[in-house]
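Q: Sequence in, structure out?
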Amino acid sequence: MSTPRAVAGRETGPIGLGCMGMTWAYGADESDADEAIATIHRALDIGVTLLDTADMYGPFTNEELVGRAIAGQREEVVLATKCGLVVEDAAEYVLGRDGSPYRWQRPGLKTGKGLCAHPDHP
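A: Exactly. Output:
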């Protein structure tokens, strides 16, 4: 059995669910919100408590989808979300930065401790 770890001061298991592909990248034009929410619910059912998302995945649609999926269960989930990196041109994959205060607000997700700036990747 793996030892739990702490993320942002909250205990979570060793395996998390990355949610990016549910709304952005990897054929997002074929994404199915109901299937994505069912996947998140199944992950929670089998003990996954760490979910990873970001405002740039969509943009914003991934966080909105995760928020809908965890409604009523928010306190059971360790939610890691990143912000500050923005898609300026999806077709050419041009990324930019925006650290303005509104990007740090996450209605419905009630984040705080699990919110971090998206890292630079040259």
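The longest helix spans residues 33-45.
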